[in-house]
Amino acid sequence: MKKSKHFETDAIRTQTDRSSQGEHSTPIFETSSFVFKNSEAARAAFAEEIDAHIYSRYSNPTTDEFIEKMCLLEGVEDGIATASGMSAIFLALTSHLRAGDHIVSSRSLFGSTHLIITNILSRWGITHSYVDIDDNEAWEEAIMPQTRLLFTETPSNPALDLADLEFIGKLAKENNCLFVVDNSFASPYLQNPVKFGAHLICHSSTKFIDGQGRTISGAVLGSGSVITEVRSLSRQIGPTLSPFDAWILSKSLETLAVRMDRHCANAQKVAEYLDKLEDIQSVRYPFLPSHPQQELARKQMKLGGAMISFELKGGPKRSLRFLDKLEMLSLTPNLGDTRTTITHPATTTHSKLTPEEREYVNVTESLIRVSIGLEHIDDILADFEQAIRKSR
Ligand SMILES: Cc1ncc(COP(=O)(O)O)c(C=O)c1O
């Protein structure tokens, strides 16, 4: 791997070797397979005696460029790109586990991750215990002799609760467990879980890494030896990212730092605005003084992020009325876009969970989740203001 310069420079200047055409912007290697000079070269490539691209389910120069950038930005050795954030999480959870193994996971999770751990892994004899994300003692107590993996997502979707990465990293080390973190909400610009002892980092790069809501994509990143198992599973089952999407993501990474700075500045202003309103029941934003884990957020995150969750006074009906009165904000489940996007998790992203499970993961029926975009802050605030007023 190349030596790291600064975040922005690594994100911009990491590129596949220039071709004989002398292109300045990075090209797209939109090809299923690669040709060999002769049969001996083909044999040696398949025997892994030489480093060569064979077939794009295994590797591809454009996908490699995206992953090389991600590794530099997360401070890890190796990684693989995947066709979605969920396939990244699935690979991270399954590549190192066998029937009889046990996972400890935070309870506050994205809906599909919760369903994989609860309903799918259990079919293959992999058991789990859920703990409150912020209860360090509970993490410790949940460890059993057969525990092999600790999983968390921080900040969590949508409640914006935080896991204490340093504590869980130490716990994983003491108990010889793999520590896996879904870093989609923070992005590598705000948080590098590997600094706190995480072994595998998952991303839904659909979110801030794409930044404009064009791809479904993901990545799993970690140290060389841990990624080897992930890669060998991925190569056989094939949740491969297309070269075209890898190209979009690699270009998007060039602007991640400036985008995140503006996302966070806008979100901080919206969170402070909501926090003062009479109409608001509660607001969650990691860098607000009212967030119970603000100190931890400031320790492990560079800025507060783009995500805010809040409840309006007046219950679920008022929340839905508010959403229907919005004029500019996009009512859509995606997040991390230049456009501000907003959703009602209980009836959308977390609707497949039972009401009890939703309660467990702090998704109340009134909760609204918003991903603050890059529109002018005055226009974002104006849309909030008029929709809150009309929803009274
Ligand atoms: C925290 C988190 N992890 C994972 C995912 C899944 O990512 P994808 O939709 O790219 O599969 C999401 C999607 O919203 C998410 O919010």
Which descriptors would you attach to this protein?
392 residues; alpha/beta; Aspartate Aminotransferase, domain 2; Aspartate Aminotransferase, domain 1; 2 domains; seven-stranded mixed sheet; five-stranded mixed sheet; 15 helices; 12 strands; 15% strand; globular; binds pyridoxal-5'-phosphate
Largest beta sheet: strand ordering: 1-7-6-5-4-2-3
The low-confidence runs, each spanning 5 or more residues with pLDDT under 50, are none
- What is the C-alpha radius of gyration, as a whole number of Å? 21 Å
The hetero compounds bound to this protein are:
pyridoxal-5'-phosphate
What order do the SSEs take from the amino end to the carboxyl end, as H and E? Answer: HHHEHEHEHEHEHEEHHHEHEHEEHEH
What's the CATH H-level homologous superfamily of the largest domain?
Type I PLP-dependent aspartate aminotransferase-like (Major domain)
Topology:
Elements: H1 7-13, H2 39-46, H3 61-74, E1 78-82, H4 85-94, E2 102-106, H5 111-120, E3 127-131, H6 136-142, E4 147-153, H7 165-174, E5 178-182, H8 187-190, E6 200-204, E7 218-222, H9 224-237, H10 243-253, H11 256-276, E8 280-284, H12 294-300, E9 307-312, H13 315-325, E10 330-331, E11 341-343, H14 355-360, E12 368-371, H15 377-390
Parallel strand pairs: 2-3, 2-4, 4-5, 5-6, 10-11
Antiparallel strand pairs: 1-7, 6-7, 8-9, 9-12, 11-12
Helix pairs in contact: 3-10, 13-15
This protein binds pyridoxal-5'-phosphate.
